[in-house]
Amino acid sequence: MLAEPVLSRSAVDRDEPLRTDTARQVAGWPTAQLVVVDADGRTPVVWDTEPDAGFRVGDAGSWDVGGGARLKTRATTGDAPPPEAVLLGERDGVAYWGVRGRPDLVAGDDPSEWADLRMTGAVLDALGAGLFTTAVAALNWHDAAGFCSRDGSPMHPANAGWHRHCEAAGHEEYPRTDPAVICLVHDGADQVLLARQPIWPEGRYSVLAGFVEAGESLEACVEREIHEEVGATVTDIRYLGSQSWPFPRSLMVGFQAVADPSVPLVPADGEIAEAFWATRADVRKALAAGDWSARTDAPFLMPGKVSIARSMLEAWAAL
Fold first, then answer.
1. 3-state class of 68 per DSSP?
2. Is residue 109 within 8 Å of residue 98, measured between CB atoms?
3. Does the pLDDT value for residue 121 go beyond 60?
4. What residue numbers bound the domain in which 41 lies?
């Protein structure tokens, strides 16, 4: 990997002891800042430098075409954190909390500034990327965890949003993360395996990925998923890195592995529309053309910078 995956960046101290220290939470509430995330996973973003020429803020697709941005947080109100707020952490003595909300036109919010994590994750600074990623992941879990998985009774948030307990028996549940592997398969030389899901437009390709099953190791999942999706047998599986992917609650664990390009590929029906071996030179051209949202005549396009797949492909192409 040439650099840390963009959604792995963070400049905030999660400060676990603060989650149970209600006195300190209340004391810091007047100077705390809120990361307000709407039901569509969007929050307001302020640009420090505009994107590259030819790209207009508000266009569809990813905004990772240059420029830099930071979160536009909101001041707190009231005397204490509301029960539904999630403590994201602290930075320079300021506590940050994630809450659900929407643009407040009376307060002067501009709805056009609101964007989701897929669009802005690669251009946010490390503080913003870490806060936004954590807020989306935690709030998504709360949205889906209203009732106890044991007895069905209502669940209520506790520990500054980092667990929920049920009314009936006090059972505790914690934010759920679903691990998934993502693997760059190469031939040990100058070719890499790319594939396209049926739901993706023609010309858009990435590396292969899949969810880890119960009782399965990460490496075993890599072997199984690659064989199931394209019929290839992989060896020399090696860990590369990881990043959160809170859509709604995944952790992408990156690997590389080796396969034989002379063995015919067999795309799984309904899962893989196309799969092929690309040369390093072609991948470099595709990376230079931009991401999936690029307006280009390139033969194929690569994932956006917010994805760990992009980081993996960039590192392989740079060899």
1. strand
2. no
3. yes
4. 6-144
Which residue is it, tokens 């879990």?
Answer: 141
Indicate whether 109 belongs to any domain.
yes
Answer positive or negative: Cα dihedral of 28, 34, 35, 40: positive
Indicate the residue type of 298: A
Collect all residues with Cβ–Cβ distance below 8 Å to 162 and sequence separation of at least 6: 19, 86, 87, 138, 174, 175
Q: What is d(CA 84, CA 314) in angstroms, rounded to the nearest whole number? A: 40
Residue 59 has pLDDT above 50, yes or no: no
Banded model confidence at residue 298, pLDDT cuts 50, 70, 90 = confident
Beta-carbon neighbour count of residue 283 at 10 Å?
21
Place of tokens 């709407």: 38
Distance CA 163, CA 157 (A): 6
The domain total for the chain is 2
Helix (H, G, I), strand (E, B) or coil at 64: coil
Nearest to 273 by CA among 183, 198, 191, 187: 198
The Cα–Cα gap between 252 and 258 comes to: 19
How many CA atoms are closer than 13 Å to the CA of 63, on its beta-carbon side?
A: 26
Q: Which of 61-70, 89-98, 224-233 has the lowest mean pLDDT?
A: 61-70
Instruction: Name the token pair of 289.
Output: 């053309």
Residues 224, 307 within the same domain: yes
* For residue 31, pLDDT beyond 70: yes
Q: Of 144, 162, 188, which residue constitutes the final position of a domain?
A: 144
State the first-to-last Cα distance of the chain, in angstroms, to the nearest integer.
10
Tell me how far apart the alpha carbons of residues 113 and 165 are, in angstroms, rounded to a whole number: 36
Kind plus residue range of the DSSP H or E element containing 220:
helix 218-230
Q: Is residue 154 part of a domain?
A: no
Contact criterion met (CB below 8 Å) for 86 and 142 = yes
Distance, CA of 60 to CA of 8 (rounded, Å): 24
pLDDT for res 50? 65
